[in-house]
Amino acid sequence: MKVLYFASLKETTKVSGEDITISSGMTAGELRSLLVEKYGDHYFPNNILCAVNQEMANASTVLTNSDEVAFYPPVTGG
Predict the structure, then answer these.
(1) Per-residue model confidence as pLDDT tens digits over 56-71
(2) What's residue 22's pLDDT?
(3) CB 71 within 8 A of CB 1
(4) What CATH number did the domain enclosing 54 receive?
(5) For residues 34 and 40, what is the distance between their CA atoms, to the nearest angstrom?
(6) Are 27 and 63 in contact (CB under 8 A)?
(7) Does residue 42 lie in a domain region?
(8) Distance CA 18, CA 4 (A)
(9) How far apart are CA 35 and CA 59, in angstroms?
(10) What is the pLDDT of residue 77?
(11) Range of the domain at 40
C-alpha cells in the first residue's frame, strides 16, 4: 500500500511517503501502531488524522495492500 505523510508530519519524519506491505485484515489503527514503532509516538499522536483512498477513516477501518493511506496532523485555523 502507498502511505503518504503531509504537513508537519512530512517535515519532521523527512519522508513524504512509502510503500508498505500489510497483513490481511490490518486496520488503520494497527498501521498507525506500526508507524509509531518505526518513527516514534511523538510523530503519530492519538489525534492524528487518517484518510484511506481520499476518504476520512478511523482506527477500525480495514485496509488492503491496494489502498492509499494518508496521515496528517489536525488542521487549525485562525
Answers:
(1) 999 999 999 999 999 9
(2) 94
(3) no
(4) 3.10.20.30
(5) 10
(6) yes
(7) yes
(8) 7
(9) 13
(10) 60
(11) 2-72
Residue among 59, 74, 64 nearest 3 (CA): 64
Indicate if the pLDDT at residue 78 is higher than 90: no
The answer to whether position 77 is within a domain reads: no
Sequential DSSP letters for 30-59: HHHHHHHHHH-TTTS-TT-EEEETTEE--T
Strand partners, 72: 49
Instruction: Domain count for the chain, please give it.
Output: 1
pLDDT (tens digit, 9 = 90+) per residue, 26-60? 999 999 999 999 999 888 888 999 999 999 999 99
CA gap 69, 48 in Å, rounded? 13
Q: Is residue 51 part of a domain?
A: yes
pTM for the predicted model, two decimal places: 0.90
